[in-house]
Amino acid sequence: MSTPLEQWVESAARMTRPAHIQWCDGSEEEDARIKEQMIREGSTFPLNEKTYPNSFLHRSDPSDVARTEKVTFICSQDPGEAGPTNNWLAPAEAKKTVGALFEGSMKGRTMYVVPYILGPASSPQSRVGVEITDSAYVVASMKIMSRMGKVALDRLGSSSDFVPGLHSLGDLSPDRRYVVHFPEENLIWSIGSGYGGNALLGKKCFALRIASSMARKQGWMAEHMLILGMEAPDGKVTYMAAAFPSACGKTNLSMMVSALKNEGYRVWTVGDDIAWMQVGADGYLHAINPEAGFFGVAPGTNDKTNPNVMAALRKNTLFTNTAMTPQREPWWEGMSSNVPTDMLDWQGRAWNPSNGPAAQANSRYTVPAVQAPSISPRWDDPAGVPISAFIFGGRRARLAPLVYEAMNWQHGVYVAATMASETTAAITGAVGVTRRDPMAMLPFCGYNMADYFGHWFEMGRNIPHPPKIFHVNWFRKGADGKFLWPGYGENARVLKWMLERIQGKGAATETPIGAVPAPNAITLDGLDVSRETMSELLRVDPSDWIKEHADVGNFFERFGDRLPEGISEQHKGLGARLQRTTVGPK
Ligand code: OXD
Ligand code: MN
User: Fold this and answer.
1) Residue with the nearest Cα to atom 2 of ligand 1?
2) DSSP alpha helix (H) spans, 463-564
3) Which of 191, 219, 247 is the last residue of a domain?
4) Do 237 and 280 sit in the same domain of this protein?
5) Over 50: is that where the pLDDT of 424 sits?
6) pTM of the complete model
7) Per the domain annotation, does 98 fall within a domain?
8) CA 273 to ligand 1: nearest atom
9) Are residues 208 and 275 in the same domain?
10) C-beta neighbour count of 504 within 10 angstroms
């Protein structure tokens, strides 16, 4: 009798008709053979064996360099389940349209069966997935990003408790590219892209979209959050999880070298992108990192912005779409101030600045998490780490103060649901456009976001010791248009205040939006930021917030009647507090 997994593999093979089927065991020998296969295919190149041992550069198709949200669908029976912020297709229609593209798509190719565990191998919070793919690059990436191979098959046994994900490169045509999710079956189909977020089905597709839908039904949380541990001088480590939209420095924060290191405050990395959390026996929310590697954006990464990842990626790393120097080393804009000569750009052409940047703007490194010098001793703990704070944030040039604390869980949910970021020139050209991105989950929530807010409220009722909720903004600018806060390692000063708040210390001043640090509450020793600048950083301008409040109201209208009462109550509450501040006491 064949197992559910074998049956699914057989049915996928009948549809895609590969020349060979290879079951991946996750061994080093297999990894070496996969790399040889990638090199034979012509788009992958070994890097300098002395300076970047066992590391490779992969060049993707130039039309396939980022996640494609417009072809990403949630396929629930009822469109209302997908909600106004997701693309929706009826499941039968998706099966028909996308199924036709899978017909014979692996002819002449190898089908790899990639079993993997998301989360520590023995954790009850972990889940098994199996990806079927015809891309050797995907196999090599999944080996870094998850616990892949025999370990997953051993955990699965003959059970049907796995999330199947079928992936094929297809013909890589953007017109025939689909990333479709069936949350009612916990199934993922992806065709026509070899890019990470579309093709590594364990990441955004399973660990966020499918997992968020499972988590709602099962009473846990799957969030787009980094997880870090903040160590205090007494050696005690307090864990925090943080969500930011893209381009706000999430990976950098998770691996930060603290500016307060000499005083005994340091940061340990548990995860840089995704957190799965459930209530533990101790009444705290416990977080695991479902991933085993970092798939980070390369441009802008350097010894100042993220020294830990720079150290991590000197071996066993798969680079995608970076430039390559004549010494066969990877290079990207912002890596070093001296620009190497005679490079090959990300498409393998002799680099000519008139062709644009040497490295693609979304070029990446894929590196095992254990290689980060900052990796937490508890990153692989099957019990997860207890979370004492959630941090939300965005890029706001004038509105949001450096940091504020929500009044309670319900208010914190509202703060997170109203999160937004202003676009930068680097992203769109239209500078300063505010994009709402609740909990940084807009592209990753596998169901109706109004119900997702409801799930957050529900979780709040079930967590005896809920995390405190903070909002940060590292990007506030002064009248001269310059950033007021230095960011990076100096952000440890803000984390230290949070730590003090968690301990019931740390002075704060109430404002209509929440509590900001009292004037001297953030340690500024050794930092060239004056007390005046700090008061500007912490200023809450009610007239700006009244405009924001109206904008938030428009955003919530999209959800109609499905919006939870709790959100409307918080929205009214903020409006009333702002009015009181502007009008003043009678
Ligand atoms: C990512 C993303 O790649 O959020 O992590 O897009
Ligand atoms: Mn992400």
Assistant:
1) 246
2) 492-502, 531-537, 542-557
3) 219
4) yes
5) yes
6) 0.97
7) yes
8) 5
9) no
10) 6
